[in-house]
Batch of 4 targets.
Target 1
Amino acid sequence: MEKSPPCDKCKAQCCRHLAVEIDKPTTKKEYDYIRWYLLHKNVSVFIDHNNDWFIKFNTDCEMIQEDNRCGCYENRPKICRDYPSKDECCEFEGEDDYFTYMFDTEGEFSDYMDSKKRDWKYKKTKS
Ligand code: SF4
Ligand code: SF4
């Protein structure tokens, strides 16, 4: 049976941010850019289950009404019409399926990088 998202309960979470795909960082400079993004308020970075990287701006759409409904429903952008897709769950339904890592602060990202460096060192000593 097709699932329908619990929109009436979640207070329009999907209308309260936007996410844009970014290149996966591979150099020290690119990792440092991620740190810089995260030093800004209301900015997060996440890695989804396909290992794609996104920057997320945690900011409400101007069109959300007090009752959490869309103020331009008939004319809403296509990306809003298409979300969530038939095969995709929305973030409210299953955060664990939606992303692998979510970094809300520079500290969280630095911890992640430290753990990656430990893994890389460990793999190097094993090979
Ligand atoms: S995040 Fe999901 S449940 Fe919430 S409003 Fe958007 S589609 Fe509905
Ligand atoms: S246009 Fe409407 S559906 Fe789209 S993000 Fe804004 S409030 Fe949500």
Target 2
Amino acid sequence: MKKTVLLTGGAGYIGSHTAYLLHTLGYQLVIVDTLHHHQVFSPAWATVIKADIAQPGILASIFQQYPIHAVMHFAGFIEVGESVKYPDQFYHNNVVATLHLLDAMRQHDVNTIIFSSTCAVYGTPVYVPMDEVHPFGPVSPYGKTKLAIEYILQDYAQAFGLRYAALRYFNAAGALPQQGLGEWHNPETHVIPLLLRAIQQQKTFTILGDDYDTPDGTCIRDYVHVLDIAQAHILALEYLERGGPSDVFNLGTGTGYSVRELIEAAQNVCGRTLITTVASRRPGDAPVLVADAHKVQSVLGWQPQHSDLNNILATAWAWEQRHLPL
Ligand SMILES: NC(=O)c1ccc[n+]([C@@H]2O[C@H](COP(=O)([O-])OP(=O)(O)OC[C@H]3O[C@@H](n4cnc5c(N)ncnc54)[C@H](O)[C@@H]3O)[C@@H](O)[C@H]2O)c1
């Protein structure tokens, strides 16, 4: 029997796909999640505990009850705009709750963790594609909480022998609709679900800025299929188990698509036309965010298998049609 992995936030978008992939590989799974988005998540193949990781005693009781071998830490608040309005909530839920987790791990001799970081730690690009040594400059409290956690991981590794991999995701996208898994954020601010919902509901889709310094004037992003992100977690876990040193890895494909290219591709995939309008730029949006992903490819042996744009859109479209938006 394979080992037991604890997934914090494992009922969320990326955590649930990773949990499913781990399950198919024979891992035992314990998920702790507040079910913040009121999502329905009770698969037969995982133990799901509805709780906040900052709740006193909860992690101790989980570590005492289950033979946890490693932790994948997805739990956190993720909406950039909300983080500007409520930085207190973000620092508590992301940074303070992570300290609770790391301290509980120390107390129970669990020393392996894969952390969900983000390209938001880099902020506005100084150059693209962005590699792992690109200067830091998070522009939102959200990005700052993730960078703070990376520093904490570094210090805990140095002082206490913690072993970690921090995966800096670019834009997670796509779904696994045949398993009832997909994106379920509330509020939803990610462009692919928003544009597919506009197509489905025959509503106008608003492009936020078409005067960027890009070929068609709209923002360019690096979209990674959520199953490829899940696969990277498994590779990172195996890497740490082989004795690989703690490290950070960008998780992107290295290819960027503009919002207009997304719209064009989505219309083709869905076989429907989308009406669009243009509004002004959203503060803090960089013109281009594209990963230099050579490190994750060479060190972890990661190769995206599902991140073709049409596959991302087709799987997300199938999910949106089954799932009623909140
Ligand atoms: N979605 C992306 O494109 C993206 C990009 C970069 C980084 N990330 C990071 O990846 C992680 C997962 O993102 P996601 O898109 O799956 O988000 P998500 O909101 O779908 O999942 C996060 C889950 O964590 C849970 N949660 C939040 N705080 C908790 C707490 N204190 N205790 C227990 N559970 C808690 C929520 O209920 C939710 O189910 C996050 O840490 C996010 O910052 C996501």
Target 3
Amino acid sequence: MKRYNPCLTCGACCAFYRASFYWAEADDATPGGVPANLTEKLNDFRRVMIGTNCRDPRCIALEGTIGESVHCSIYPHRASVCRDFEASWVNGKPNERCDKARASWNLPPLEPDAWFTPEDFPKAA
Ligand code: SF4
Ligand code: SF4
């Protein structure tokens, strides 16, 4: 079954929330981790993606145009906070934090069918 990823035409959460995580997730402590040079210290325990700890956030690793075409330039190395963030309906339930980020960019909440291409829709008998 083909799946369509609506996050690739969104990116709102990467330009709305602070992306902070336990400091040792960065690659100067964990090989293959989050590139440390794209992070800054938040406190003694946590780091934050550069660009997300400010008034008009946008993660330094986000490429593209929000609401049109985006991708995370460190996708395989992104932090747990990014991996754990669930888009609405990706697992069959809404996520108000996804909806809130999209609303801040004047994007409507995802609908349950956002994850399917048209040919996946059940056909009427
Ligand atoms: S690291 Fe990637 S997934 Fe995480 S906030 Fe930045 S652009 Fe988004
Ligand atoms: S706000 Fe929701 S739909 Fe948009 S990129 Fe983030 S998880 Fe995906």
Target 4
Amino acid sequence: MGLRLKFNLAMLFALAIGYGLTGYAVHSMLQENARAAVLDMARIMRESALAIRSYTVEEVGPLMQTLSVERFLPHTVPSFAAQTNFRQVREAFPDYAYKEAALNPTNPSDRATDWEADIIHAFRNDDALRELILERDTPTGQSLVLAHPIRITNEACLQCHSTPAAAPASMIALYGEANGFGWKLDEIIGAQIVSVPMRVALERANQTFSTVMISLGAVFLTVFVILNLLLSFSVVRPIRRLSTLANEVSLGNLDAPELEPAGGGEIATLTAAFNRMRRSLENAMRMFS
Ligand code: HEC
């Protein structure tokens, strides 16, 4: 095997391993960052929903108290306020969603779908489970879901969610007696579910990945070409010339022209040493003849 082939095989092997390992590390890091960014977004959405909820309880509720006597105003219900707000956000960002899903909801549009019910059951089956983060395939691409249990911790909730008799008549008139009752204190009745699309973040990560890998490939290719040229000009060619000359001299052709020890490196030292050895050989031959 020639020197150049050996050198190239070793270099290709090292570059391929470096390329693969870097690609793997960069890919995992970018995917992780994309997920973290989407999760941050989901947390901000949840916090704003909680802010709307407490604003409704603390600011809107007391003001509406006198009005609520005559007819029931859903506007004072925190769940209604938060979900109505996010329905408007959805008009601008259709893939984002906020839902307070319940197994037995007061408003039928809050009824948990199959996968939402699975989340609620997971919370009901494991008391220690405080948060669930999962990824779901949707028709518009992958979506990150951040879910928290909704537990009845306040007696006041039961006024409207225990029995129709306990609830305000005005509420029954609006929502009927069929749903949203029978909730118990300390029971997990639903889940607060935020969905954020991952498509854009993942596409951006993939784009960055391609750019990094193409640039790295270009750097490796340049290194490969430059080292090959260097090897060719400063090692392979001089050695080839020297070995041709050594061949000729060994076959008795002492007229072959001397090589110039160019460059000053190891090969030049070798050329100079060879020239000296050849001259000694010539002198020795002359003495014998
Ligand atoms: C004054 C009556 C009233 C009280 C008190 C009340 N709710 Fe509700 N709740 C409602 C109504 C009405 C809805 C349906 C709102 C809508 O149309 O979106 C609702 C909806 C909800 C929902 C969404 C799922 C569903 O049933 O549609 C959750 C979750 C919820 N309430 C939890 C609570 C909790 C927790 C408390 C106590 C902190 C509470 N509610 C107190 C009347 C009430």
